[in-house]
Amino acid sequence: MKKSAALSLFAGWKGMPALYYGTDEKTLAEIRGFGYTGVDLFVDDPFLPENRAALGKLRRHGLGVGAVMPALLAKQGLSLGDKDPEMRKYAVERIGDMIRFASEASGMVSLGLVRGRAGAGAGREEFFKRLAGSFEELLKTSLPLEVPLILEPINRYESDHLNSSMEALDFIEKSGLPLYLMLDTFHMNIEDVDLAECFRRCAPYTKHVHFVDSNRLAPGMGHLNMAELYRTLEKLDYSGYLCLEALPLPSGSECARMGAKFFGSQESSSCKTNKLFVPYGSV
């Protein structure tokens, strides 16, 4: 499994779960020095020259891109399920730009808060029809470019639909759309009963994992059994990124350091376990 940290290409907002901001030499060297091999990118405008230059900087430091995060679009009021067809069209266009940017980075695009809000009552069914229509439009761009679109289940305090991993899985299977999942242990801890079992059931669709503790900090800084979840993903032969999309507390560097310490301990434990099983006649 690959390890990554969340990085924003813009200033962000209070409470944004990014450990790093900007792509200066010191920042990228620190991320790589901690042993991370990739980043998730919060992106504002893919066409800004400095954002395009950021991809080259990441490559020079040996850092890949897991997911491109269009969360700022949601902050700007854009929604893929908007009742206004012109607003939906504009949201699709903006995320289409993110898809093209992700293609250059060999990354994926996350579809989380930008889905919008479903509302209550009979209107929810219409919302999901509009949402599926927007997804179909986005797939016209993403499929030829081989950029996976990944749905992120988000907890009930931030979203009013597809809150649990099981709900998101059910949506993908019933819609028949070629979408995938990005599971986040912070949201799962609120919405899902058995996180390990959810990982097992969602395994065929899971392309990306935000791997953080109960308090949205590095593994080991909260109360989840992160070691058990790590072993579960190992047994499932998950080969994607485990990303620290975490709060920068007590600082981004310290949280990233604690995450690196946890991952190092799990890798060491796995090596020791493997050494216990030596096939007869191999020595």
Automatic annotation (TrEMBL):
GO terms for molecular function: isomerase activity. Gene3D superfamilies: Divalent-metal-dependent TIM barrel enzymes. InterPro entries: Sugar_Epim/Isomerase, Xyl_isomerase-like_sf, Xyl_isomerase-like_TIM-brl. It comes from Hungatella hominis. It comes from the Bacteria. Keywords: Isomerase. Residues 29-246 form the Xylose isomerase-like TIM barrel domain. The lineage of its organism: Bacteria, Bacillati, Bacillota, Clostridia, Lachnospirales. This is Sugar phosphate isomerase/epimerase.
